[in-house]
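Fold this sequence, please.
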Amino acid sequence: MQQAVKIKSITWQKVLPQVCFWLLITLLFLYERRYLIHKAGLPNFIACVSVRLALIMGLAYLNLYVLIPRFFNRQRYVVFTLLLIVSLALYVGLQSAYDMFLFGFIIGDTRYAQFWRSLPYNAVSSAWYLLITVSFKISLDWFRHKKDLAAAADSVEIKTEAPEYLYLKSGLKTVKVCIAEIIYIQALKDYSIIYTNADKVITKGSLKHVEEILPAGYFLRVHKSYIIAKSKIASVERTKVVLNGRVSVPVGRSFQDRLEGF
């Protein structure tokens, strides 16, 4: 259900700008041919605007969804130019023929009853409206592309790999400790003792400091003095955790809820 609503929303977002654009073009046509209301009557005025709008929409979508994608975008410029000229000539021819019918047989204005009389005006106006339509479509596609890129950037989950080793200061030397081998860490005043499978390392620094440098998600603090490796948990009781089946670590009362699910 939610997927269907989302699809309808996306479809409407694509259709709405085009509807608004053609509504604007229709208003321009109405304003341009408003004199026909007095000369030819309202029905012929509506018919004239409808024919003109249908022709320019046909010309526009022919170029936007056929000629530009199949020829211009594939760098077939010669074929695209020839087909563009043919489509413009067809539009101008049909529009001029309709104007000849409208002015010659409906209005009776002999000045515009000839086919060639309205040809220059129709050629200029068709090229102008086609340019506006293509420019609008290109601008709309650019805006949608930028919006999609921004949405994709927001949805990208940046994952960083956890380090394999810790380099800790122990006395006068720096010790390399494999994170996967750490069983638990114990606080001892201003020091921390890191217990591994084979050894233990005493480093200067509070347990909080050590907790901050450990990779997130791999360790769990269960006591004010203990941090344990999740992967080393063998069993969990209310007051203690058994690690590797042999090491028992106390669980503080305020930390017990962190072990839920283990």
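The CA atoms of residues 129 and 226 lie 75 Å apart. Strands lie at 165-170, 173-178, 182-188, 191-196, 200-204, 219-223, 226-229, 233-236, 240-243, 247-250.
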